[in-house]
Amino acid sequence: MYVIRKSTSRFDPTSSKLYRLSRSRIERFRECRRCFWLNERYGVDRPGMPAFSLNNAVDALMKKEFDLHRAEGTAHPLVPLKHERMEEWRDALRRGIEYHHKESNFSFRGGVDDVWTDDAGTLYIVDYKATSTDKEISLDDQWKQGYKRQMEMYQWLFRQNGFTVSNTGYFVFVNGMSDRKAFDAKLEFDVQLIAYEGDDAWVGDALTDAKACLMSDAIPEVGERCEFCPYREAAGSQLKKPSSSAYETSTPTLF
Predict the structure, then answer these.
(1) Which residues contact 33 (CB under 8 A, 6 or more apart)?
(2) Domain residue spans in the chain?
């Protein structure tokens, strides 16, 4: 059942209290300001999506693999950062790495998959991705542009917390192989490491723009590639048409 978020957790334009905003919600703002505004101001979120259980399992195992080297101090082709707050930073649901952006009064946060380091103490943000494809894996697909912004938001958050962060981040793609002769109750993976040069200069401005969006009482325009707003509009237009049904009820106002 869909439940509208309670009013105490929504953005109040008249309040001066610190407002927590996650990395995924800024990504929502980038995708569609109307969806972002409806969610933050009125608690009306997009429909939920099924959890990607296999992807989550692979993600958890990748973290455990690097945690073994982190705890034992043993060598690995890429060196995982050993830090007392690592588990906090990776807790995307409740904690993550957080920064108070004073210009917007947002407490902005995100849960990183992993952080690697070099001998000089420079940090490299790492994101694990699970997929299954027989095509060459790249970051060029349109829907993967969100991956890049995700990386840049993590880089920005760590920099704001005083760390030296490389512009180079790493995506670790774990690709399930579908060309094996049989399943045999196991799925084999290839691992591909893709480096990405991030540019986080846009993040601070995005937070400021998001604040301006939420302060306005005007309904924002629909995002260029948003699939949810056109659906709401189409459904609303059908509900507003005259009906001869004896069971017709009052038409809800969607906007």
Answers:
(1) 213, 220, 221, 223
(2) 53-208
